[in-house]
Amino acid sequence: MQLLSRRSLLGLAAVVDIAHHSRPTPVAAKALATRHALPPRHLETLLQALVRHNILKGVRGPRGGYELARERRRITAGDIVRAAMTDSSDDELSPVSSLVDQVIAPAVDQAAQSFLAELDEITVEDLCREAERKQVFGGTATNIDFAI
Fold this sequence. Notes:
This protein is mainly α. 53% of the residues lie in helices and 5% in strands. Helix 1 (6-21) packs across helix 4 (77-86) and helix 4 (77-86) packs antiparallel against helix 5 (98-119).
């Protein structure tokens, strides 16, 4: 059972990927999109949301792209998931019901807060270390073999 949306998972993967690959130059959205097999325009909206939430910083110019706006140890998985969830469009209709409003929604909201609190304990630094330990980047920052 998947608790996070694809957008949230992609946000986590993008930030960890950028944290790993952005030294010494920022990561181009096109390179990131290629690594994750996505159209660049689809990824760009997520990257811009992460910039608005001060997780990433956009760098303009011919060697521009994205880099972390803060240190890896100061960005949590919860920060990234909140940014992805806040800026995603939820087109589905919610039921209009006293049961939902008074019982179900508060219970689910409480569980969601607990889940996000757990994600707040995981930093980008933790995820980068785990990715490096498992060699998902292929051993060097220049080898780009990472997909979700």
